[in-house]
């Protein structure tokens, strides 16, 4: 599978990850329902293995490798949740993972990846150095590279979250997810439109990393201009595959401020008693700031992850 | 009902709170299972209304008042979760609540109670002043006093959490809860021993507030000697009713250090992505520190609440 994934691929992915990934719970909150005048359903990928939806895609991709390929190893570059996801999914499949990380990556992220048994190769903190280190390892070992989002198997895996959500709450009017590289958004859009063609599929982005919004408006991929949003999972640009899928399947993309992100991250902690990372709050802010008309509607929200440095909370 | 509640009272309480209190979820954690070699089931009262199990008891007591009594108002003294529980349960029953709070109570607690529509009467931060203020209001208004734990209706309400847990996981070998005033522990013990007579019922306390442990050993109520444990929900002494129930129905009480409480509170945040308050971590520390032999056992843990001041986390 190297082309745009279909709903059939997502159904296959769901079978593949069953028993390995968690079927995450769907929570509701009377506080947020009252605030919005809508009925909100939070799909809790923060409770997923490695604390983020990324495990779904990584496991779906890695579990499909032939044993010969798997034995040559798995490789990716990431200092975020995808790194942990590839590390754990490789380990669960009995393969060795190598993660290329910038030498200035937070120690807490490095340790998490190491705890999952992956080897870490440090590189300079530039895109060139990262690519060079990765290419070199691939050329020596023949390891398989798992792209964090521009990969059809990864996208199909991420789509299983929306599939589960719509199976549990079939009459959603709207589904909304954050957009970073677009893997989750792509899988969510394909699954949602296939299960319920009249559902409205929305993406949400920080104003400080609004490349998907601008790409969507322009009709061509626009690069990220800044990387200083607090929503660290959403700093990447779209890929060729995810842009195509989002262009064809997403109804609208809305953007939110940094202040709203921090405010709503905190509100979720205080009111729902669950830990979400800043990227998670982005779609919630879009709903609370009135960017979308949801009054009286049933709205599904993918909560993407809960990996936060508890020593550095954004409201300190 | 003014005597020791029975399981029949807990079943009645369960009917009374249905549709008003949340049926809270039961979560599992592969991290904690691996750490302990047991299978742990976390009953999430941190997701309960007002963020704590206290709502169950307060609603069960207040919803039984005659309309004549209810109209005279409800009163309690507390600066903790019971205050919020009485405030919200009164509001939901259409009654006016008055909460007597020390003038140095944290503003976040004061605001939470006010948000639920209760009137706050401030007193000096002494037991005498608190009692005097309370008595004065009762004598003028005829308001009904709802004790935070030494009240059979409150105890019966708290017991509904263990009832739900055992209905969802009927083959628990052990159930463990923290002990403050003993209301939750009492309701948990009565429900558990009635549903599954051979279950082991355990209580957990901070070493710095081990009055229940000492009372249990001595066979008579021993006062709390210090009030500086971080587990702020567990600083109170047992009441006559709760001591009697605990003496007759609890198999053992174990104690844990402050260091373990903070460590395990943080572990739950990091690994389970849910927010628990320090009191919640006390039974978990008892299990992790080997105070109880749980290898190969199924263990239920009541997570009592998630009300934490996010500006003042104990690991900063």
TrEMBL record, chains A, B:
Keywords: Magnesium, Pyridoxal phosphate. Residues 20-305 form the Tryptophan synthase beta chain-like PALP domain. Its cofactor is Mn(2+); Ca(2+); Mg(2+); pyridoxal 5'-phosphate. Gene3D superfamilies: 3.40.50.1100. It comes from the Bacteria. It comes from Rhodohalobacter sulfatireducens. The keyword ATP-binding does not apply. CDD domains: Thr-dehyd. This is Pyridoxal-phosphate dependent enzyme. InterPro entries: Ser/Thr_deHydtase_PyrdxlP-BS (IPR000634), TrpB-like_PALP (IPR001926), TrpB-like_PALP_sf (IPR036052).
């Amino acid at each position: 599978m190297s082309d745009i994934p279909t709903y059939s691929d997502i159904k296959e992915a769901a079978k593949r990850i069953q028993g390995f990934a968690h079927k995450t719970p769907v929570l509701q909150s009377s506080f947020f329902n009252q605030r919005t005048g809508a009925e909100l359903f939070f799909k809790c990928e923060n409770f997923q293995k490695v604390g983020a939806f990324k495990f779904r895609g990584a496991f779906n991709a890695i579990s499909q490798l032939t044993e010969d390929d798997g034995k040559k190893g798995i490789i990716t570059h990431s200092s975020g949740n995808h790194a942990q996801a590839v590390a754990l999914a490789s380990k669960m499949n009995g393969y060795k993972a190598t993660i290329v990380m910038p030498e200035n990556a937070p120690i807490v992220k490095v340790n998490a990846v190491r705890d999952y048994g992956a080897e870490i190769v440090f590189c300079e903190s530039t895109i060139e150095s990262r690519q060079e280190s990765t290419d070199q390892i691939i050329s020596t070992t023949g390891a398989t590279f798992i792209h964090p989002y521009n990969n059809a198997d990864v996208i199909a895996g991420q789509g299983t979250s929306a599939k589960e959500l719509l199976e549990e709450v079939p009459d959603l009017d709207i589904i909304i997810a954050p957009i970073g590289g677009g893997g989750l958004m792509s899988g969510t859009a394909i699954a949602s439109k296939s299960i319920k063609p009249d559902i409205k599929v929305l993406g949400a982005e920080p104003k400080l990393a609004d490349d998907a919004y601008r790409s969507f408006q322009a009709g061509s991929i626009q690069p990220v201009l800044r990387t200083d949003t607090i929503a660290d999972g959403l700093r990447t640009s779209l890929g060729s595959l995810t842009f195509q899928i989002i262009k064809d399947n997403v109804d609208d993309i809305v953007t939110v401020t940094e202040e709203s992100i921090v405010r709503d991250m905190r509100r979720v902690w205080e009111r729902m008693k669950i830990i979400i990372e800043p990227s998670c709050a982005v779609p919630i802010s879009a709903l609370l700031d009135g960017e979308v008309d949801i009054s009286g509607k049933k709205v599904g929200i993918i909560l993407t992850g809960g990996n936060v440095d508890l020593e550095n909370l954004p409201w300190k």
